[in-house]
Amino acid sequence: MGRSKGGSGAKNGRQSNPKYLGVKAYGGEFVTAGSIIVKQRGTKIFPGDNVKRAGDDSLFATADGNVKFHERMNRKYASVVPVQA
């Protein structure tokens, strides 16, 4: 009986590329309209004021201002607070 299986020895090499998910703009940071705040899979964080959800569940700013993370009814939200002129 053979000691090893026949065929190719390439059993590794199936690692997928990194997806670069996570928070891109932290609380208190200034963002411009269209800036991505969070890259996520599913809605771990929900859109708040001046924030919308993209097709891939990313959150992006719809106005210039400072990012604010808060919690309401056991849900995490990301909002953008516009700066006063």
From TrEMBL:
GO terms for biological process: translation. The keyword Ribonucleoprotein applies. Keywords: Ribonucleoprotein, Ribosomal protein. This is Large ribosomal subunit protein bL27. One of its GO terms (cellular component) is cytosolic large ribosomal subunit. InterPro entries: Ribosomal_bL27. Belongs to the bacterial ribosomal protein bL27 family. One of its GO terms (molecular function) is structural constituent of ribosome. SUPFAM superfamilies: Ribosomal L27 protein-like. It holds the Pfam family Ribosomal_L27. It comes from Treponema ruminis.
